[in-house]
Design a protein that fits this description.
Elements: H1 6-9, H2 13-25, E1 34-38, H3 44-52, E2 57-62, H4 65-74, E3 79-82, E4 94-100, H5 109-118, E5 120-131, H6 137-148, H7 154-157, H8 169-177, E6 182-194, H9 197-205, H10 210-214, H11 219-236, E7 245-257
Parallel strand pairs: 1-2, 1-4, 2-3, 4-5
Antiparallel strand pairs: 5-7, 6-7
Helix pairs in contact: 2-3, 5-8, 6-11, 9-11
The structure holds S-adenosylmethionine (SAM).
S-adenosylmethionine binds near residues 45 and 62.
Length: about 260
């Protein structure tokens, strides 16, 4: 699995912090003693959890050594665990299992969400946020370039659009309601004000474009792919007279209580 780049990821840290803060604001738990932040990345969602519940013991879990190294540098005394979400299992039930912008990278959501809610302690919660913008112009451009941009890469790219897993809200409700006393699901479409299409390109390059770039064999093809995508983004996201453009970004939020 090629490396995540914490610096590129943190370039839009303020915009990325907002959904995590919105999710935390809706979690109706007074004082969870144990919290796990799954897919904690460089630790920014973990910091938000620590601010809301300073007494809690919080563990950040991620399968990227680069992201965890950044998290450890920022907070050397906090608990960090290099582990895949798919195989992670706590020793004892956890009061709050939290995940911001990570579960869409993991397949098999019926099994995943069932396993997660059953690892939550009685009276605790599972709280998850996932991007749900895979029908957006940015993703359409990447798919078009992947499948029609250059015959050398079309075959390798065919499976990429299936990399991200986000099911309809009713799916999560059905999976979770059997194990939860209450399930809250909502979606928000943020309208990020960006400095032109290149800024949107830079944002996506550090996350949603990675599975495409990872499949290209060399720097020349990666550069060509990026150039074609940037051209498509310039068509799809037209800046206004001040060079600004709105980047609509839909996200799904789930909080289930045991
Ligand atoms: C978009 S970042 C989110 C980081 C952080 N939660 C935040 O709110 O900024 C997604 C993180 O999920 C991690 N991730 C993706 N798939 C994973 C998996 N299967 N197991 C563990 N971590 C995973 C990535 O390494 C990355 O750090």
């Amino acid at each position: 699995m090629p490396a995540w780049d914490p610096n590129l990821y943190l370039r839009y840290a303020n915009e990325r912090a907002r959904p995590s803060a919105d999710l935390i604001a809706q979690i109706r738990l007074q004082s969870p003693a144990s919290i796990v932040d799954l897919g904690c990345g460089p630790g920014n969602s973990t910091e938000q959890l620590q601010q809301r519940w300073p007494e809690a013991v919080i563990t950040g879990v991620d399968n990227s050594p680069e992201m965890l190294a950044q998290a450890k540098t920022n907070h050397p005394t906090w608990q960090w665990l290099l582990c895949d979400i798919e195989t992670w299992k706590p020793d004892a039930p956890v009061d709050l299992i939290f995940s911001n912008a990570a579960f869409h990278w993991v397949p098999g959501h019926a099994t995943l969400f069932r396993g997660m809610i059953s690892s939550v302690a009685s009276g605790g919660a599972l709280a998850v946020q996932m991007p749900n913008n895979f029908q957006s112009p940015a993703h359409s451009v990447m798919q078009e370039v992947a499948l029609g941009g250059d015959p050398r890469w079309a075959k390798a790219m065919a499976a990429v659009p299936g990399t991200f897993t986000v099911q309809p809200a009713a799916f999560y409700y059905d999976v979770l309601r059997k194990h939860a006393s209450r399930v809250d699901i909502w979606e928000t479409e943020y309208q990020h004000v960006m400095d032109g299409p290149k800024a949107i390109f830079d944002w996506i390059r550090s996350t949603g474009m990675r599975p495409y770039l990872d499949r290209l064999p060399d720097a020349e093809q990666k550069q060509l792919f990026e150039e074609m995508c940037l051209e498509g983004f310039q068509e799809a996201y037209r800046p206004n007279d001040q060079g600004k453009v709105l980047f609509p970004f839909r996200r799904m939020f789930i909080v289930a209580y045991r």
